[in-house]
Q: What sequence folds into this?
């Protein structure tokens, strides 16, 4: 059974920092592309950052230079370090695993809320 469990969300003042974690189980974490996505009320879910097994990363333009995605394959954990948070970063943040087999299959976590106050 695949499980992705996010943690680390919460309320932070604008300009502050948060570190999100995603604990994965039931997948070959080290061979999975992992990513963080977010969805604000009334908006579509969007890519925040994605980290391939090769180490290649891509970020949304809106978070470049402020957010850093990383992974610990030994612990099967994905992280998102978020600095200089803005009110527009407020959203539910989701962890996603792209698991490669005969076909690519996507798995999602339940999300963690990030609220940024002025």
A:
């Amino acid at each position: 059974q695949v499980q992705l469990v996010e943690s680390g969300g919460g309320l932070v003042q604008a300009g502050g920092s948060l570190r999100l974690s995603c604990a994965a189980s039931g997948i070959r974490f080290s061979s999975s592309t992992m990513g963080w996505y977010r969805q604000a009320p009334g908006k579509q879910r969007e890519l925040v950052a994605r980290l391939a097994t090769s180490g290649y990363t891509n970020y949304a333009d809106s978070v470049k230079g402020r957010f850093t995605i990383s992974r610990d394959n030994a612990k099967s954990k994905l992280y998102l370090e978020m600095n200089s948070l803005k009110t527009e970063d407020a959203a539910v943040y989701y962890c996603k695993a792209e698991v490669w087999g005969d076909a690519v299959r996507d798995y999602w976590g339940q999300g963690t809320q990030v609220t940024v106050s002025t």
